[in-house]
Design the sequence.
């Protein structure tokens, strides 16, 4: 079994790296300094980099090429994909159910006027 333990410096570097990635993504989404497609690409790149930082500096999966490290990485990747895809599916479904179409809104307004 790998006996490597993280040092205080690696944990601080991981924390700072994760914090920088999170703040940068938040800034890009809130301020809109570029085109939406470019912002989306930057947020995806920041998320991928943060995922790598957490795997290497917190979970220490990049230290050796053992089979369990590859299995753990594959499992983490699958879970992240499931969570992201499920979240997008739920948000899209709720958006479709919560926002009425223009025709529905006009019909509602006409019904309110006739009362």
Sequence:
């Amino acid at each position: 079994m790998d006996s490597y333990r993280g040092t205080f410096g690696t944990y601080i570097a991981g924390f700072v790296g994760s914090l920088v990635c999170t703040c940068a993504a938040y800034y890009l989404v809130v301020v809109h300094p570029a085109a939406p497609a470019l912002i989306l690409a930057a947020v995806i790149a920041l998320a991928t980099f943060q995922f790598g930082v957490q795997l290497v500096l917190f979970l220490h999966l990049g230290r050796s090429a053992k089979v369990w490290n590859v299995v753990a990485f594959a499992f983490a990747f699958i879970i992240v994909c499931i969570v992201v895809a499920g979240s997008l599916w739920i948000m899209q479904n709720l958006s479709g159910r919560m926002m009425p179409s223009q025709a529905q809104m006009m019909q509602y307004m006409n019904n309110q006027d006739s009362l």
